[in-house]
Design a protein that fits this description.
By secondary structure, this protein is of the alpha+beta class. Helix content is 47%, strand content 14%. The protein has 7 helices and 7 strands. A hairpin with a 2-residue loop joins strand 1 and strand 2. Helix 2 packs parallel to helix 3. The protein is globular and about 55 Å long.
Length: 251
């Protein structure tokens, strides 16, 4: 059975990853440098995305159950020092909203009928994974990528599959099963069919259509599009992973 990170740990790690992101931005020789893993963005664009996103989710959490996200307008700062201060305040707003709400409050989420609940706890969990990946992006941009913190990466495969993949939208291809095997975290199976996509752990004993294997860090970086599937040990019908990458389910 997979156990997710406790809510206080999610808040602690959100703060730590936010600090690591600001440290990477501060180390950049220029904020106009292109982000290799997000080539349409400069580092300043990425910083603005992070700050705006944390403020938007803070407003969503504060609003509680709702039919849609709360509108948020923020004047984007310019200059390294102003951006750093604005990012720190953005993080504070999100952490304060989450701490006040607690993990079980309902709120709007974009993931709809997935296996992740529409709660502030699930928001905190997803926000941590987003900051994990974008901190990696920022560190890569300044030439100093660090290993992903193990306790976050080890929850990353489960969080991605249950939040970003699980759906009741019908799979448009032949039914398939994909196993995600990690050497340092629980293994998961994603079952794809006309009923949608469902993630389970541990995988059943029946052979999957295809599987990937690596460390939790390696699999998480693949799932978030930072590394190709060929960076992992792949078995079975590899084309199904390509179909999954391109799939945009309609619910």
């Amino acid at each position: 059975m997979h156990t997710t990170l406790a809510f206080p740990d999610l808040l602690r790690l959100l703060d730590e990853r936010s600090t690591a992101f600001r440290t990477a931005v501060a180390a950049a020789p220029s904020l106009d440098v292109q982000v290799p893993t997000c080539p349409e963005w400069t580092l300043a664009d990425l910083a603005h995305h992070i700050g705006e996103g944390r403020r938007r989710w803070a407003a969503i959490v504060k609003a509680g159950p709702a039919d849609g996200p709360q509108p948020v307008t923020a004047e984007l700062p310019e200059g390294r020092e102003a951006i750093s201060e604005w990012l720190a305040e953005s993080t504070r707003q999100l952490l304060d909203a989450l701490a006040e709400a607690g993990p079980d409050q309902g709120c709007w989420t974009w993931w709809g009928p997935s296996q992740s609940p529409p709660t502030t706890g699930a928001v905190a969990r997803h926000q941590l994974q987003q900051l994990l990946i974008h901190t990696y992006d920022a560190q890569l941009t300044v030439g100093a990528p660090h290993a992903l913190p193990a306790e976050i990466a080890q929850d990353g495969v489960a969080e991605f599959l249950t939040t970003c993949c699980a759906t009741t939208g019908p799979w448009p291809h032949a039914p398939a099963t994909l196993d995600f095997l990690t050497t340092d975290a629980p293994a998961w199976r994603l079952t794809l069919s006309a009923e949608g996509a469902q993630a389970t752990t541990p995988p059943p004993a029946t052979p999957p259509t295809a599987s990937v294997e690596g460390t939790a860090e390696e699999v998480v970086l693949y799932l978030h599009g930072r590394n190709p599937v060929t960076s992992l040990k792949v078995s079975g019908d590899v084309k199904v992973f390509g179909q999954l990458e391109e799939w945009e389910p309609e619910v």
